[in-house]
């Protein structure tokens, strides 16, 4: 990592939520975790689905199930993503005005 503050995590999360399904890679991006931890959570969610008597989608999980792991609602992620976009837009405008 470059040490740069990531101000777009909720933009990434929104994209995954709007897709509806998440891959193992998406889990790592959504939770900002390493591959080992992300895959472990992915497998846990698949087990939860099976315990509920439901069928897993091959190589995917429902993205909304990841919200429990970050302690946010879908509405919060959408709102935070809007704020992040606003910050990015303002930063871009400031950078352009300095040039």
Provide keyphrases for this structure.
99 residues, elongated
Characterize the structure shown:
It contains 5 helices and 2 strands; from the N terminus they run αβααβαα. The protein has one domain (22-91). The chain is mainly alpha-helical and 99 residues long.
- Placed side by side, the strands forming the largest sheet appear as 1-2
Mean pLDDT: 90
Which residue ranges are poorly predicted, with pLDDT under 50 across at least 5 consecutive positions? Answer: none
- Overall geometry comes to elongated
Largest sheet: 2 strands, antiparallel
- The run of helices and strands is HEHHEHH
Helix fraction, binned, reads: 55-70%
Radius of gyration: 16 Å
- The number of E-state strands comes to 2
| Terminal CA distance | 28 Å
Percent of residues in β-strands: under 5%
The total domain count is 1
**Counting H and I runs of at least 4 residues, what is the number of helices?**
5
Structural class: mainly alpha
In short:
66% of the residues lie in helices and 4% in strands.
Topology:
Blueprint: H1 9-19, E1 21-22, H2 24-31, H3 35-51, E2 61-62, H4 67-70, H5 74-98
Antiparallel strand pairs: 1-2
